[in-house]
Structures are given as structure tokens and as C-alpha cells.
């Protein structure tokens, strides 16, 4: 291996020195005519290359200008991304703080939904109209499809390790149920729950512990599903400011239902009665009307409103979080691209430029010829030495193989020799 490396190095040195010598001879006109013609051809090509290089230099100037504009845009975009990230982080912090308040509000009212509350509501044989409507709204909140078309069933309630959305409602259901709750199954045009529907609700509430757990384990951490959200919102009166369960008329308990419509029941809870001979149609759920009807129903109303408000605030939080993630990815891509470009520039600067050939004269000719002869002799000796070493290695390999074969055959005959008895 050492001999091979030495011979290769000598060959490179000899080739380089011989090339310089022949170029000098061609320059002095003492070389072969073929070499002189070849040198003249090379000089002509070099002149053409110089002309091309002048044009390339002009193109390089345009490329440099383009590159400057490109880098300026990238730098501007980088600064813009950093600014947008700062704003997005601030927006996310504010959205998260608002969402935390809404979450605490949900948990506050969730804690008040217990077995005793459910059992008191279930005990109504004929519930007050508003309490009945509230319970139908709760059924929709739980995702009971029998109380609202287009609302999914079991998939809307808590399932460990999964979050299944309800199926998409039909356009007809959305049109008929998006503005008023009177289209909900079991509720008549006057806003009262029919007896059969109330019996179904009581049946669902029979296992009060399970009923409470279902309400506590609704999928609300990432917001209510769009179908359930629309269904629940359709039950409520909405003020001009967009607040659920609040009317602009502070003197009324509900739109179309005043406090005079409700009288106390023997059990101490309120019941609704028509004012005069004409029954007034209830237009939607309000917190005030729910309290007049039943304090327990009002708790469920507050819980539902808290869930709707949490869902309303979760969407901006989710969008802010996704936008910040997108900006972070763009920032990382920019940094990676800059790193790659920096590495490419470093590789360009590390490449050694070829050393310019020295200007040689006729006085240098004898020295070059002597160097070429010396290198030629050294190269010949190195090649012969390498060849001798190769032959010696080959001979040693053959002798080693023969010895190995002999030992192998001896190891095969040795057991047979031991079995032959002495004579």
C-alpha cells in the first residue's frame, strides 16, 4: 500500500512537471509541432472564454441585484414573521385567559348540578312550561336524537379516549330549528312539553347518578359540536348584544312570559298559569323566567349558557394557537434555509483556488528537464519496487495457501492414524 501511494504521488508530480516543460518548449518554439498547434488552439479558446466571461460578469451583476432584492424580501418577511409571532403570542395569552375564566364558570355551575337537583326536577308530574322546556334543552345538550332531529346520540356524550362529533344535520332541519325551539320533538306550538315526552325525560332521569355523570362528562373541553351548539342556542332568547337568556326588556321575565304568568306550587316551586283567559305563548328560555319556574331549572340554564360561552371563546383560542404554530413552522423553515445557504457559502470559500503558473523563460528549461528526468527515474524505481512487492506478496500467499491445505489434510488423516493398531 505504501509503495502504491508513493508511485501515485510520483506520477502526479511527473505529469505536472512534464506538462510545464512541454508548455515552455511550445512557447519557445522548440517543441513538437503537434504540441504547438494544441497550445495555439488552447490560447484561442481562452480568448473566447475571456469574451464569454465579460458577458457572464454582466449577467452576474444582474444576478447580484436580483439576489439583493431577494435577500431584502426574505429579511423583511423574517422581521414580519417575528412581529406577527409576538402579536399572535399576545393574542393567544389573552384568548387563553378569557377561556380560563369561561372554563371556571362552567365548572362552577357544573358543581351545582347534582343528584338532588335532578331528583327534584324528575319529581314533577306536570312540570311548569319553562322547566319542561329547559329539560328538553338539556336532552338536546346531551345529544338525545329523539328530542331534536339532526342531533347525534351516544357520540355526543363522553367516551374515554375518543371525541366523536355528531352527524351532519340536514338542511331542512337546520332551517326549521335554527330560529325557534317549538320544532323540537315533544314541544307544542305554545311551548309546553307533552305528557309522553315528559315521561320519556323522567325515564332517562331515573338513574340520577348516571344522569349527573353524563352532564358532567359532556365533550366541551374543545367546544360543543356545531350541531349541539345550534340546537341548544335555538332554545334561548338572545338580547340585541348577543347575550343568551337575557332580554332587552328588563321588566319582563321572558319575551312573552312575565312574572305574573307564574304562581307558587304547593311544594314551594313555581308553576306557570295563563294570564287571563288567553294563554300567552313562550318565545324562548331566559334566566329570569327559568328562576320563576324552578331554581333547579335555572341552574341547568346557567350551566348550558356557560358551555355555549366557553365554545364561543374556544374557537378564537384554537385559531390563535393554529396561527402561532404556522408562524413557528415558517420561522423554522427560514432558519433552516439560511443555515443551508451559509453552509454553501462556507464550502465555496473553503475550495482552494488553483495557484497561477509561474512565468518561465528559456533559462528555466535545463532545470525543468533535469527535474523531469529525476522524477522519471524515481517513478520507474517506485513502479519496479511495487511490482516486486506484488510478486513477493503473491508468492507468500501461494505458500501460505499450500501450508494451510497441508494442515487441513493432516487434520483429516490424524483420527484415522489413531485407529490403526500397532503391529
TrEMBL record:
**Coiled coil segments of this chain:** 78-112
**Which regions are flagged for Acidic residues bias?**
352-362
Which keywords does this chain's UniProt record carry?
Coiled coil
**What GO molecular function annotations does the UniProt record carry, in alphabetical order?**
dynein intermediate chain binding; dynein light intermediate chain binding
Q: Where is the composition biased (Basic and acidic residues)?
A: 332-351
Which intervals of the chain are annotated as region Disordered? 332-368
Instruction: Give Gene Ontology CC terms.
Output: dynein complex
The superkingdom of the source organism is: Eukaryota
Per the UniProt entry, what are the Gene Ontology biological process annotations, in alphabetical order? Answer: microtubule-based movement
Q: What is this protein called?
A: Uncharacterized protein
Amino acid at each position: 500500500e505504501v509503495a502504491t501511494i508513493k508511485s501515485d504521488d510520483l506520477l502526479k508530480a511527473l505529469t505536472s512537471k512534464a506538462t510545464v516543460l512541454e508548455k515552455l518548449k511550445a512557447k519557445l518554439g522548440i517543441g513538437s509541432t503537434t504540441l504547438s498547434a494544441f497550445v495555439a488552439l488552447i490560447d484561442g479558446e481562452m480568448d473566447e472564454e475571456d469574451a464569454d466571461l465579460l458577458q457572464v460578469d454582466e449577467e452576474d451583476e444582474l444576478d447580484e441585484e436580483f439576489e439583493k432584492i431577494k435577500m431584502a424580501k426574505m429579511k423583511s418577511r423574517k422581521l414580519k414573521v417575528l412581529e406577527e409571532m409576538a402579536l399572535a403570542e399576545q393574542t393567544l395569552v389573552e384568548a387563553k385567559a378569557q377561556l380560563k375564566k369561561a372554563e371556571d364558570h362552567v365548572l362552577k355551575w357544573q358543581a351545582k348540578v347534582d343528584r338532588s337537583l335532578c331528583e327534584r326536577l324528575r319529581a314533577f308530574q306536570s312540570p311548569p312550561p319553562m322547566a319542561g322546556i329547559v329539560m328538553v334543552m338539556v336532552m338536546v345538550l346531551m345529544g338525545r336524537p329523539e328530542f331534536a332531529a339532526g342531533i347525534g346520540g351516544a357520540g355526543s356524550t363522553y367516551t374515554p379516549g375518543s371525541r366523536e362529533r355528531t352527524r351532519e344535520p340536514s338542511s331542512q332541519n337546520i332551517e326549521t330549528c335554527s330560529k325557534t325551539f317549538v320544532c323540537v320533538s315533544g314541544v307544542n306550538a305554545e311551548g309546553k312539553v307533552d305528557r309522553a315526552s315528559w315521561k320519556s325525560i323522567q325515564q332517562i332521569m331515573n338513574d340520577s347518578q348516571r344522569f349527573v355523570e353524563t352532564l358532567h362528562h359532556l365533550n366541551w373541553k374543545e367546544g360543543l359540536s356545531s350541531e349541539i351548539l345550534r340546537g341548544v342556542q335555538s332554545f334561548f332568547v338572545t338580547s340585541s348584544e348577543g347575550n343568551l337568556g337575557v332580554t332587552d326588556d328588563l321588566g319582563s321575565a321572558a319575551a312573552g312570559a312575565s312574572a305574573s304568568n307564574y304562581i307558587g306550587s304547593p311544594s314551594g316551586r313555581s308553576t306557570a298559569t295563563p294570564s287571563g283567559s288567553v294563554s300567552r305563548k313562550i318565545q324562548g328560555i331566559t334566566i329570569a323566567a327559568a328562576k320563576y319556574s324552578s331554581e333547579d331549572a335555572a341552574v341547568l340554564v346557567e350551566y348550558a349558557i356557560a358551555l355555549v360561552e366557553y365554545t364561543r371563546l374556544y374557537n378564537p383560542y384554537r385559531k390563535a394557537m393554529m396561527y402561532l404554530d404556522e408562524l413557528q413552522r415558517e420561522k423554522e423553515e427560514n432558519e433552516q434555509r439560511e443555515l443551508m445557504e451559509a453552509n454553501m457559502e462556507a464550502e465555496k470559500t473553503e475550495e482552494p483556488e488553483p495557484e497561477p503558473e509561474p512565468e518561465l523563460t528559456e533559462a528555466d528549461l535545463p532545470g525543468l528537464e533535469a527535474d523531469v528526468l529525476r522524477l522519471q527515474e524515481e517513478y520507474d524505481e517506485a513502479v519496479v519496487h511495487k511490482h516486486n512487492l506484488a510478486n513477493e506478496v503473491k508468492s507468500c500467499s501461494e505458500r501460505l495457501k499450500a501450508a494451510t491445505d497441508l494442515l487441513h489434510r493432516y487434520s483429516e488423516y490424524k483420527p484415522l492414524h489413531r485407529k490403526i493398531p500397532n503391529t
